[in-house]
């Protein structure tokens, strides 16, 4: 059995470019498409390699693609597989076959000096676009990854904010809409495995427009761990004509917030929410909202209008301190709360770190945890 990517086609109109392909995996067939406004798109198979490599590894099946593949990307894909197999042994190394050989690869001149940066309106992407504001020419906004395709309300509000930020900075916006996540979610985990590859896939699609793309980091060099986007991984998606850069590991999340919080455009547009409970731009209740609101309070930033509810310390105290990623952010916020002498905030964060759930996780075996977990849902 193989994972096969075929029928890669393009259809352009005056307002957008569209490409689609058929992906066959484990006897299922997926019609995957990308619609792009604001950029031409490549007609090679590079984006489709990034889209399908990790699902193929999960299935342990040869990956066959109809289309041209970049030599450097093929070498990168080999190293990506080495790293991923060490991190996640159940993802096995697979062969990659392309119908067209390297010798048939046409030379493509670098047509551009444009530089892109993925921009969701969150802390990491605001930090990266402000850090590289002289160099970056395009903001890349995706509908279909963190914002569901059927969520028009959050999509429209986010898109408006992205265009306002781009206008304030004098940048262009490239809008990408794709159903790729529907495919990836069937085989691999979005955070741990796939979202970096999915972002790389959209960047590779834009390689005839952009020479470099920044992918904003989630974690500092101090707290790196196996994760779908990582400074070891992301550059390996680069091609001979496009560099992909994992950016921002030098700053913790609270350091990033401290650097961006005073900008007017951040106050108007900051969007961090994953869950959008109540269809809110920032729900104020999910872990990521609470993590950000906690940092803002610890830094003494009282006015962030995109959060339309006050920080609830009882929710902060119930954050899951046993989750390694959540724990890092709780610890960072606790340090800041102690430095600013915010006693009640520090107390809530300590409670989250030392809570009943966390204590059981630290002291208990995985077997006990599995039995107890339903009680804490
Ligand atoms: Zn939220």
Describe this entry's structure for a reader.
- Strands 5-4-1-2-3-8-7-6-9-10 form a ten-stranded mixed beta sheet.
- It has three domains: 2-104, no CATH class; 115-247, 3-Layer(aba) Sandwich (Rossmann fold); 272-376, no CATH class.
- α3 (123-131) crosses α7, α9 (287-298) packs parallel to α11 and α11 runs antiparallel to α12 (343-353).
- 40% of the residues lie in helices and 17% in strands.
- By secondary structure, it is of the alpha/beta class.
- β4 (62-65), α2 and β5 (96-98) form a beta-alpha-beta unit.
- Zinc ion is lined by residues 273, 275, 282-283, 285-286, 288-289.
Give the arrangement of secondary structure elements.
Layout: E1 2-12, E2 17-25, E3 28-37, H1 46-59, E4 62-65, H2 71-87, E5 96-98, E6 115-118, H3 123-131, E7 138-143, H4 152-169, E8 172-178, H5 180-184, H6 190-205, E9 212-216, E10 243-247, H7 253-260, H8 264-269, H9 287-298, H10 313-317, H11 324-339, H12 343-353, H13 356-363, H14 366-372
Parallel strand pairs: 1-4, 4-5, 6-7, 6-9, 7-8, 9-10
Antiparallel strand pairs: 1-2, 2-3, 3-8
Bound molecules: zinc ion.
Zinc ion is lined by residues 273, 275, 282-283, 285-286, 288-289.
